[in-house]
From TrEMBL:
Gene3D superfamilies: Translation factors (2.40.30.10). PROSITE patterns: FAD_FR. It comes from Planococcus notacanthi. InterPro entries: FAD-bd_FR_type, FNR_nucleotide-bd, Riboflavin_synthase-like_b-brl. This is Dihydropteridine reductase. Residues 1-107 form the FAD-binding FR-type domain.
Length: 238
């Protein structure tokens, strides 16, 4: 396993609780849209066994051509030791990344794509939208729906509707409006539905989509194949 040690080159305060850490990109490090990585703080591998308290599974919110590895995360006032340590890091300090993989690359199957996310989960979809806006081949259109009760919506410069490019973006701040819109989107029985958020969020969205006869193969989760069965057990067995 290759571990890349790299420096923080910029810290962006997206909202009072959300930060993006931009990391220098090692020469031989590459990734695709929808990727996640293991993001670790100094000392995580100092002992005989890795200190899992200093490692988190994070989405990469940038594309390779942006030449920085973006890690966007919410850090609340009351937070874990990992987040508290991360909050105190400064530009120039080192972090580690390893085991990078994408479960949700943009499928180009001449279908409509729907991106369903909660809060900072939008970070996973930022690279998919940028990739689509640069090259729309074999994607009919994309619609993004994000719920954030804080009303401090992220990446509004990217998630801005562009009708000429067949991209629409919608933000809501309450569950009622959100799930009503999910139901409306699910009227497209041939669409592809990507979901990113907490496990509870995934379960509720899958239930809403399945009730509208959306099939398991139309639902993309940011989960490894072995974890998918936890969310779609009956369907995957058929």
């Amino acid at each position: 396993m290759q571990i890349y040690w790299t420096k923080i080159n910029k810290i962006i305060e997206e909202t009072p609780e959300v930060r993006t850490y931009l990391l220098d990109r090692p020469e031989d490090f590459t990734w695709q849209e929808g990727s996640h990585t293991h993001f670790a703080l100094e000392g995580f591998n100092a002992g005989e066994k890795p200190n899992r308290g200093l490692i988190r599974h994070m989405s990469i919110s940038t594309l390779p051509h942006e030449n920085s590895i973006g890690i966007t995360t919410r850090i609340k006032e009351q937070c874990s030791e990992f987040k508290a340590t991360l909050r105190n890091l400064e530009v120039g300090q080192e972090v580690a990344i390893f085991k990078t993989h994408s479960n949700v690359p943009l499928k180009r199957e001449d279908k409509n794509v729907y991106l369903l996310s909660s809060g900072v989960g939008l970070a996973t979809f930022r690279p998919l939208v940028l990739d689509y806006l640069e090259r729309a081949d074999n994607v009919n259109q994309i619609h993004s729906l994000n719920i954030d009760s804080s009303k401090q919506f992220l990446f509004t410069n990217v998630f801005e509707s562009a009708p000429d490019k067949k991209f629409t973006s919608q933000f809501v701040d309450n569950r009622k409006d959100y799930y009503e819109e999910v139901k409306n989107l699910a009227e497209d029985k041939d669409g592809l539905f990507y979901i990113v958020g907490s496990d509870e969020f995934l379960v509720h969205n899958i239930k809403a989509l399945r009730e509208q006869s959306i099939q398991p193969e139309q639902i993309m989760l940011d989960k490894r194949e072995q974890s998918m069965a936890e969310f779609l057990p009956v369907e995957l067995a058929n």
